[in-house]
Amino acid sequence: MTSERVVLDVDGLRMRYGTTDVLHDVTFQARHGEVLALLGPNGAGKTTTIEVLEGFRMRSAGRVSVLGVDPAHAGEEWRARVGVVLQSWRDHGKWRVRELLRHLGVYFSCYATDRIARPWDPDDLVAAVGLTSRANAKIRTLSGGQRRRLDVAVGLVGRPEVLFLDEPTTGFDPVARREFHELVRGLAARESTTVLLTTHDLDEAEKLADRIVVLDGGRIVADGTADELARRIAGEDEVRWTHAGQRHVRHVRASTEFVHDLFRRHGDGITELEVRRASLEDTYLSLVRRVEAGGAAG
């Protein structure tokens, strides 16, 4: 459950490579138990932002705090509280799935305290990511989708307080993706894990995220819930209905009030009513087009 305690605090983050600025004064926060989706086109700065927060990349300027610690100067105890799922990794091919997770769990056990939970039981973790049938298989024999599930398991071994997921469901089939979504929602709800997610799957972001931050050209161009962004950026809902044999379509901002007025005026004469709210995809595409056209984001 989301609380008011700030877990990720980014203020004025800048990153420069040579003479090129790739992040410009990026500022946002995430709270305890919140799922935050970081969206944007390729090259927007999403992975660079996450790598700074993970402590893998030194920033050029700005202030960053994760669990009250600057990642640039964090120690091993801090790292035991953070989980990372990279876009891909290809080590440990000779290990077996359960064997690797048990081995990694030993490192987290060294840091277990009242504040830092014990690592996941390997069998429970294997089941949580849907790899029970492959628990004794060598990693090099896993399919691409199975390997991606293992990537997620590796990020979860230490029961992290903050979990970074960079394109986590790449290669997942629809069933595996749905199971993963349930896992992420459970982590946030039951264990109050704060999750920072990057994805190009806008449906995934809409299903998982409590809040969405959109990066474009290294700048934050939108920040809010999917509904807030839809109202502010995409703007209008589509209402379709039939009356007196005529099919009608209207685009309106206040669809609930519009539909109420329709029934007040026409009652049972209204049939085949459909209300299509602006989706995150509609909102995102509208926003990116506005930014590319030089318009101000909401």
Automatic annotation (TrEMBL):
GO biological process, one term: response to antibiotic
Listed GO MF terms: ATP binding; ATP hydrolysis activity
One Gene Ontology CC term in the entry: plasma membrane
PROSITE patterns, per database record: ABC_TRANSPORTER_1, ABC_TRANSPORTER_2
SMART domains: AAA
Domain of life per record: Bacteria
Pfam families the record matches: ABC_tran
Main location: membrane
Record keywords, A-Z: Antibiotic resistance, ATP-binding, Nucleotide-binding, Transport
Membrane topology: Peripheral membrane protein
Domain ABC transporter positions: 8-242
Cellular localization per UniProt: Cell membrane
Protein name as catalogued: ABC-2 type transport system ATP-binding protein
Native organism: Saccharothrix texasensis
